[in-house]
Design brief:
It is a single chain. 75% of the residues lie in helices and 0% in strands. The protein has helices spanning 9-18, 24-48, 51-74. It is elongated. Helix 2 runs antiparallel to helix 3 (51-74). The protein has three helices and no strands.
Length: 79
């Protein structure tokens, strides 16, 4: 995911660097936070009638959900 081109700026770059040494649980928390942010952006775009912004935000949220699914599949099962 190329966050710089998504217009997320310095906050996204900080979050990306902050996650370098994170445990899988922390990655999941960061991903959920990011997905929530994109869903809120989509909600605002829907309210404003901005279909391109809505599509972009929903597409970004979908990419994060795909990432979370991959992260969950890569984590070993716990008993």
């Amino acid at each position: 995911m190329n966050m710089a081109n998504d217009g997320l700026g310095a906050l996204a770059a900080y979050r990306a660097v902050a996650g370098i040494d994170a445990a899988p649980e922390e990655f999941m928390k960061m991903a959920i936070d990011a997905a929530r942010t994109f869903m809120l952006q989509a909600e605002a775009a829907i309210r404003d009638g901005n279909r391109p912004a809505k599509a972009k935000a929903l597409g970004s949220a979908a990419k994060i959900v795909e990432f979370m699914l991959g992260l969950a599949a890569a984590e070993p099962e716990r008993s």
